[in-house]
Design goal:
MetI-like fold
Length: 325
C-alpha cells in the first residue's frame, strides 16, 4: 500500500507540474501581461506608463522563465513562473487582478458550493442505484421498458430546462421557495432545496441508465447463476452479489463528480445566484481575471488527481480480492 501511494503521489505531482506549466504558457505567453493590462485598463488607448504600473503592482513585470539581471539561482527563482508556481503547491494563490486575496475568497465560497454539491451527489447516487436495481429486478417487463424510455427522455433534456421549470413552478407559481439567492446559517436550506433537486433530476436519467447497464451485465455472469442454483432469492442475489461486483465501475464513474463537490456547479450557481466557487469562476472569466482562473484550474486538477487515488483505494473496500501493490 505504501509503495502504491508513493507512486501515485509522484505521478500526481508530475501531472500537476505539467498542468501548471501549460496554464502558465497559455495565460502569460500566448496572452501576455501587456494584453491583460490593456483588457483591465480599458482597451488600446491605455498609455505605456499605465500598463507598466499595472504590471508592477501585480508582479507581472518580472521575466517569465529566466531573469538575466540576477545572479546564481536568483536567475530562476526571481521569475514570474517559479514564484507563482511554487506558491500554488502550498495553496498560496496570491491576489487577484482586482486586488483581493484569492485563497481567502476560495475558503469563503467553498461552503456554499459543498452545501449544494454534496447532497446532490450523495442523494443522487443513492437514488440512481436504487432505481437501477429496481429496473434490473423487473427486467424484461413493461416497468423496465418504460423506465428505460424515461431515462432516455431525461438524458435528452438540458439541465437549463430543469432550472427554468423549477424556478417557474416552485418559486413563481407555487411560491414555496426563493427564486435565487443565498443566506448563511440555518436559513440556507430554503435556498438550497430547489438547486439540489434540480441537480439530482438533471443527472438522474444518465446515471440510472448507466447503473442499470452495469447490473444487467453482472446478472448474466456465471457466479449469479451459481448463486441462484444455491437457492438464494433474486433480491439477495442483486443486493449482495450483483451490487457488490458492480461497485467498482460505479466508483470509477463517480470520480469525475468529486471536484464538483468543491468547485461547485457553474450553471446552477449562476442561475440561482449562489456565492460559491462555480459563480466565482464565472465572474473571473467574465472579468478576465486570469489569476483567479489559473488558481481554479490548479485546484480542479489537484482534486481530480486526489479523487483518482481515493478511488483506487476504495476498490479494496468494494472488492477485497483487489490488492494494491
Amino acid at each position: 500500500m505504501f509503495r502504491f501511494l508513493t507512486r501515485k503521489l509522484a505521478y500526481g505531482f508530475a501531472i500537476l507540474i505539467g498542468i501548471n506549466l501549460l496554464t502558465f504558457v497559455l495565460f502569460f505567453k500566448v496572452n501576455t501581461p501587456d494584453d491583460m493590462a490593456r483588457m483591465q485598463l480599458g482597451g488600446k488607448r491605455v498609455t505605456a506608463d499605465a500598463i507598466e504600473k499595472w504590471k508592477a503592482e501585480r508582479g507581472y513585470d518580472r521575466p517569465l522563465f529566466f531573469n538575466e539581471q540576477e545572479q546564481g539561482l536568483a536567475k530562476l527563482s526571481n521569475t514570474l513562473f517559479l514564484d507563482s508556481s511554487l506558491r500554488m503547491f502550498v495553496f498560496d494563490f496570491g491576489r487577484a487582478d482586482s486586488g483581493r486575496d484569492i485563497a481567502s475568497e476560495i475558503v469563503r465560497r467553498a461552503g456554499p458550493s459543498i452545501a449544494l454539491a454534496l447532497p446532490s451527489f450523495v442523494v443522487g447516487l443513492g437514488i440512481s442505484i436504487v432505481l437501477a436495481l429496481g429496473l434490473a429486478f423487473f427486467r424484461a417487463t413493461y416497468l423496465d421498458f418504460w423506465g428505460t424510455v424515461l431515462c432516455v427522455v431525461f438524458m435528452s433534456i438540458s439541465s437549463l430546462f430543469f432550472i427554468v421549470m423549477g424556478q417557474f413552478m416552485f418559486s413563481r407559481v407555487l411560491q414555496l421557495m426563493p427564486v435565487s439567492g443565498f443566506a448563511p446559517g440555518m436559513d440556507a436550506w430554503r435556498f438550497l432545496v430547489l438547486p439540489i433537486a434540480v441537480g439530482i433530476f438533471s443527472r438522474l436519467g444518465g446515471e440510472v441508465r448507466f447503473n442499470r447497464t452495469l447490473f444487467m451485465e453482472e446478472i448474466g455472469k456465471d457466479y449469479v447463476r451459481t448463486a441462484r442454483s444455491k437457492g438464494l432469492s433474486e433480491s439477495r442475489v442483486l443486493l449482495v452479489h450483483v451490487l457488490r461486483n458492480a461497485l467498482i465501475p460505479i466508483l470509477t464513474a463517480s470520480v469525475a463528480v468529486i471536484p464538483l463537490l468543491f468547485m461547485g456547479s457553474l450553471i446552477t450557481e449562476s442561475f440561482f445566484a449562489i456565492p460559491g466557487l462555480g459563480s466565482y469562476l464565472i465572474e473571473a472569466i467574465a472579468g478576465q481575471d486570469f489569476a483567479i482562473v489559473r488558481a481554479m484550474v490548479f485546484i480542479g486538477s489537484f482534486l481530480y488527481i486526489l479523487g483518482l487515488i481515493l478511488t483506487d483505494i476504495s476498490y479494496t473496500l468494494a472488492d477485497p480480492r483487489i490488492r494494491l501493490q
